[in-house]
Amino acid sequence: MLEFPMARAAGCPFDPPPAMQTLREQTPLTRVRISDGKTAWLVTRYAEQRALLADPRVSSDVTRPGYPSPMPVGERGAPVSFILMDDPEHARLRRMVTAPFTIKRIEAMRPGVQKIVDDLIDDLLAGPKPVDLVEAFALPVPSLVICQLLGVPYADHDFFQDNSKVIINRETAPEERRAAGDRLYAYLDRLVGEKLDNPGDDLLSGLTQRIRDGELARSDAAQMGVLMLIAGHETTANMIALGTLALLQHPDQLALLRESGDPKLVAGAVEELLRYLNITHSGRRRVALQDIEIAGQVIRAGEGIILANDIANRDPSVFEDPDRLDLRRDARRHVAFGFGVHQCLGQPLARMELQVVYDTLYRRIPTLRLATTLEEIPFKHDGAVYGVYELPVTW
Ligand code: HEM
């Protein structure tokens, strides 16, 4: 039986593992063995993935025995948040934090994000080179933005970035992961406590009103804070750095983006890079609540399911010539943000941040280039979110 996750091919850092490509060609569903020795169904094709992600017989509840966790349950430390719960509790908690992520509210943040990006580029241009783009730009942009939105002091960024890194690394020892989760939870719990006494104009302060009204437990508020703080900076940071690397490796596409200035092309480029890179490469994890017949197979109640969205985003029945990075294509049907009730809450924010970054960075630094070789770049093969640990650049 095949093991999951599978390895990417050497020298093809942007493509999903070739074994997964082969599997998708052969069958929409197959059994795989995961890290804890259990088995799960690996779903490789786009249509079956969307069908299952939208199916109420499929659960995200990490505490169910068959759930194919990338890390053993019970080693997570602090309690889990709504990303690992089912409706109605998932919907009840998610609804409490949707308002700040509406398109209108996110668009109102665009000038502020533009200023953050411009200021960081000013600093880059004034500083020494080569420079690590991850440390100097890709991590600070989304970290500054999510801190502002949640009401977390940016001065604590080393603390939360370091702990997030430990949590999402698949190689982390269980006790280390638990300790990092506990530290982040304690930090968010203290912040929520401060905001209960002294609310400001931010998302966490908004949640304290719900605590006062008896609608929300303080522990749930803190855990939602942990989820949004991690999800809000890690993912987008990886898209900025890996996206930049992909563009540097595709100079014709980079030139298109740099010279266009057309907001529609930029928005389309963001969708295509999300599709092509699909950084959430560990698959969406689920467990069947009932027997489900799909594509000539029966997934039995209690069996684990892994929806490999990276390989679905390369499905040729949906995307023509899917392994080509083509910023002009219409890639909006991609599943890089997932699908169904758990589809990414922060996607309007991520899209806006990436549009500002991709539209600004390469125009302001037109000679941006790698200060090392592709072979020297450390990729996050061991992370739940794919990307690069460092990206040395110069200009
Ligand atoms: C490019 C950046 C991003 C990518 C690729 C991404 C990807 C995803 C994916 C694939 C899911 C679905 C998980 C599942 O079905 O199991 C998800 C959920 C989620 N994301 Fe994002 N995300 C990004 C940025 C953000 C940002 C900026 C936030 C800000 C808070 C965020 C917050 C969340 C939350 C709270 C969930 C859970 C939603 C739920 O369970 O209802 N994400 N994300």
Explain what you see.
With 395 residues, this protein is α+β, with helices and mostly antiparallel strands. Helix content is 48%, strand content 9%. Helix 4 (103-126) packs across helix 6 (140-150) and helix 7 (157-168) packs antiparallel against helix 8. It is globular. Residues 82-83, 94, 227-228, 231-232, 235-236, 239, 279-280, 284, 336-338, 342, 344-346, 349-350 line the site of protoporphyrin IX containing FE.
Q: pLDDT average, as an integer?
A: 95
Describe the main β-sheet briefly.
6 strands, mixed
Q: Pick out the low-confidence regions.
A: none
* Total DSSP helices: 14
Fraction in beta strands: 5-15%
Strand order of the largest sheet: 1-2-3-9-6-4
Tell me the structural class.
Answer: alpha+beta
- The ordered string of helix (H) and strand (E) elements is EHEEHEHHEHHHHHHHHEEEEHHEE
What is the 3D shape? globular
- Radius of gyration, in Å, reads 21 Å
Q: Calculate the terminal CA-CA distance, rounded to whole Å.
A: 48 Å
Bound heterogens, unique: protoporphyrin IX containing FE
Strand segment count: 11
Portion of residues within helices: 40-55%
Q: Could you outline the blueprint of secondary structure elements for this entry?
A:
Layout: E1 2-3, H1 18-26, E2 29-33, E3 39-43, H2 46-53, E4 58-59, H3 89-95, H4 103-126, E5 131-132, H5 133-138, H6 140-150, H7 157-168, H8 174-197, H9 203-212, H10 218-249, H11 251-260, H12 263-277, E6 284-288, E7 292-294, E8 297-299, E9 304-307, H13 309-312, H14 347-364, E10 369-370, E11 392-394
Parallel strand pairs: 1-2, 3-9
Antiparallel strand pairs: 2-3, 4-6, 5-11, 6-9, 7-8, 10-11
Helix pairs in contact: 4-6, 4-14, 6-10, 7-8, 7-10, 8-9, 8-10, 10-14, 11-14, 12-14
Bound molecules: protoporphyrin IX containing FE.
